[in-house]
Amino acid sequence: MTDPILDIRNLSVSFGRLRALDDVSFMVAAGERLALIGHNGAGKSTLFKAVLGFLSPKAGAISVAGHIPGTDAARIAITYLPEVVAFPRSLSGREVLAYFSGLRNAPKAQISDLLDRVGLTEAADRAVGTYSKGMRQRLGLAQALIGAPRLLLLDEPTSGLDPVSRHDFYEVIAEAAARGAAVLLSSHGLEEIQSRTDRVAILSGGSLRAVGTMEDLAREAALPTTIRVTALQGEADRLHSELGGRRLNGCRLEIDCTPEAKLALLARLGTHRDVLQDIDVAAPGLDDIYRHHSRRSDMEESE
Ligand SMILES: Nc1ncnc2c1ncn2[C@@H]1O[C@H](COP(=O)(O)OP(=O)(O)OP(=O)(O)O)[C@@H](O)[C@H]1O
């Protein structure tokens, strides 16, 4: 990996006797989007607070663009969007961004562009108290983009947003990453992040269970790719006896294979194409991968 902006090494954080984070290590590079997932209480917010410099680690180290969290240099490098944003209700969206631009010593000239980018141009001069939750969240994202931060920390940024707003939100995040920002975001929306982030880190009970691309995680979990075949009427029995798999109904068959064996199986299916109606290839999704790692950690805890 080149140029890590966030570098977390062997991080442990405790609250009294509770170890909220236990020996967690990972990096986020410039231009990379890493999603942190984990059940309630897994330690996501604790990790964010440690990166922001609000909590002192019991052990380990964090570097933000080469600086220790909590220092002025680290603070300048990071922007943060909490799950629930609260801005003064009487200020307009434009005034909120002007205020944060002043705090970050960023040019006010970018405010109109940011408002436009998050779809708030028309509402820019209205009081924030009249904004919907989605509009406040979009204003929060604009706030987090002020001053071209090197690390964007987004804590469940899309909770409560409708599907179109979510899509637009991830587009804006992708643009920030394309400009070189490192992005660390937490989310419970597994489906939405699997195609919109570069890598995923799975946290469970304060420990990092896995980190990697979707392909890495699927390979590591040894989860199969499933090929669903729909045969022409009366042909499913013959296909089943030749190819194996599970019969779903009179004409459908489901065959599991390793990702490496997928092409060979599709080639074999090609020799039966005169009796096939349809083929559907389903790679393991993030929900399958997450379930696999959660099961593993449950088993380890009961040992
Ligand atoms: N200030 C605190 N004092 C004591 N325990 C705490 C404190 N903050 C967090 N914890 C505990 O640390 C663990 C991790 O909490 P954290 O808030 O980081 O989880 P999370 O993954 O963000 O959960 P969620 O998805 O519900 O937001 C939990 O057991 C929580 O109860």
UniProtKB/TrEMBL annotation:
All copies of domain ABC transporter, residue ranges: 6-230
SMART domains: AAA
CDD domains: ABC_DR_subfamily_A
Keyword list, A-Z: ATP-binding, Nucleotide-binding, Transport
InterPro entries named among the record's database cross-references: AAA+_ATPase, ABC_transporter-like_ATP-bd, ABC_transporter-like_CS, ABC_Transporter_VariousFunc, P-loop_NTPase
Gene3D superfamilies: P-loop containing nucleotide triphosphate hydrolases (3.40.50.300)
Top-level division of the source organism's lineage: Bacteria
Keyword Transport set for record: yes
Keyword Endoplasmic reticulum: no
Gene Ontology molecular-function annotations: ATP binding; ATP hydrolysis activity
Matching PANTHER family: ABC TRANSPORTER ATP-BINDING PROTEIN ALBC-RELATED
Protein name as it appears in the record: Cu-processing system ATP-binding protein
Naturally occurring in which organism (per UniProt): Tropicimonas isoalkanivorans
